[in-house]
Design a protein that fits this description.
Length: 258
């Protein structure tokens, strides 16, 4: 299994366990997860996200066969071009995660599109979490709304050469991102951390609308334990061939691992 939604480091508003490279790999071993995409949880709230990328690179360095590091960058920060180059060329990061609600910009911002296109030119995958945590769990110090699906769709449409992974959200099947005739390029996939496989069976609905090649396995660890995501795969009414695509084969293509 390849988990496309995992994190390292500390988060400002809650304690995270298994949040070191060694700790996360031990958790992965318990649940049979071979590899995981990781980015800095701390960079979500750092004023300078690059400090979190440096921490992630250091933690992942001893586990490069298991951990696939992604950068966290803000186009509102003037030094992002240099930071992107360092993250890709020195740290070997294969993708980029965007947190517009936390970093004070919109996905429609021309600076954001410039960052996405620059990362795409480096063959880096763009990860867009709809949320970090459930809004009902947010600290009283912050109020960051979920990203609107229409806003994500606008960036996907504006950057057709990029590869996107949209995750940490739900309700996709009833939005523009889940409709088969939405006019969007097929350059995005959806990961299943927050999706249901039984009540409502949103995973099944998206299999029908987007196809079996555009769903990816994700757990959200260590914000969440991996068990629920594995249970979803067990009860999902789909063939083992389809499940194998979701568990790993699709991620190989979307992350450019092949």
């Amino acid at each position: 299994m390849i988990d496309v939604n995992a994190y390292l480091g500390h988060f400002a508003f809650r304690q995270l366990r298994h949040n070191t490279g060694a700790g996360l790999v031990r958790l992965m071993d318990r649940f049979g997860i071979e590899r995981a995409v990781v980015s800095s949880a701390a960079a979500i709230t750092y004023r300078n996200a690059q400090a979190g990328n440096e921490e992630t690179a250091a933690e992942a360095a001893s586990h490069r066969s298991r951990l696939i590091p992604f950068a966290v960058l803000s186009p509102a920060y003037a030094g992002w071009r240099d930071d992107l180059k360092i993250c890709h060329e020195q740290f070997g990061m294969r993708g980029l995660r965007l947190y517009p609600g936390w970093h004070g910009y919109k996905l429609a911002d021309p600076r954001c599109r410039e960052l996405v296109n620059a990362a795409a030119e480096r063959n880096m995958t763009i990860s867009i979490p709809v949320r970090v945590e459930d809004r009902r769990q947010q600290s009283w110090l912050v109020s960051v709304p979920d990203l609107a699906h229409d806003e994500i769709a606008g960036l996907i449409r504006a950057c057709p050469k990029a590869r996107f992974v949209v995750g940490n959200g739900n309700g996709f099947s009833g939005s523009i991102l889940g409709r088969p005739t939405n006019g969007l390029p097929d350059n995005y996939a959806i990961e299943l951390t927050w999706l249901s496989a039984e009540l409502g069976n949103e995973i099944g609905l998206l299999l029908g609308s987007l196809g079996e090649d555009r769903l990816l396995f994700g757990t959200g660890m260590p914000f969440h334990y991996p068990g629920p995501a594995l249970t979803k795969m067990e009860i999902l009414p789909a063939s083992e061939t389809v499940k194998e695509k979701i568990r790993s084969r699709n991620a190989v293509r979307w992350l450019g691992l092949g």
